[in-house]
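Worked example

This section walks through a single chain of length 292. The input is the sequence exactly as stored; nothing has been trimmed or padded.
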Amino acid sequence: MSSFRERNDRKTGKKQSFQKRGEGRLDRPQTPATQGRGGGETERKPARSRPDADNFLWGRHPVLAALANPARRGSGRLMVTEDRAEEIQRENLANGHRIEVVDSVALGRMLPAGAVHQGMAFKVQPLEGVALEDLAEPAEGVIVMLDQLTDPQNVGAIFRSALAFGARGIVVQDRHSPALAGALAKASAGATERLPCARVTNLSRALEKLADYGWRAIGMDGESDLTLEQALDARPTVIVMGSEGDGVRRLVAEHCEAMARIPMPGGFESLNVSNAAAIALYEAARAQGRAS
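Given that input, the structure is written out below as tokens.
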């Protein structure tokens, strides 16, 4: 059976924009990782035995979302299996990125153990994010603030829920937040490429600044007497989620207008933080008349 590249060459008579590993020099765009001082390409170092997940996106949804993100144009190294290369070429999804074809086993070796790559991986530089002011104006809708949540699966799932329920964006503390790549990006199903994220030095000061723009903050606390339904209304709202172990920290909680809980009549008062965030986002959207 002829390969996709051979079939397409016969049909169009044109040289393809991707090639298999080992077929001459890799044809890839210059990035900060591949540029020398004179602007030319430098030799790429061999892959490390323990890949750095912060530099990779993998899985179909995260990679395709990154390819469609204008902020990614002209950067990154796209590596896919032959069948995925055919899909990307057929549906014109590359958006200017060169395609490097590798086999599934070799692709898996480049990624952390257990990574479900679905035939796609994208080596990238971190996104710069947005300024807090970009989320604050105009003051309407919902913003999610994450207070020292470090589990990539939970943070990724919260990004996915926030995008689904129409949140304006996510605010995290720069020093205590995982990179928006790797397992986090996989769990977000591409939401990290579409939902703005602001990284700030101090969450309390960020809440003060948001308050100046007209935002109110509601922190989540399972011990509060006030329910989430009672605390929410149509005003611009920041929902503050704390870590599963410690919850919202005291100084951050002091900058919240109220702390609220999710009623759990089932008698089992324990929710994963990403599940709690999804419920809070739904309730906030409903309070503002935006949930159908």
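What to look for: The first strand starts at residue 18 and ends at 20.
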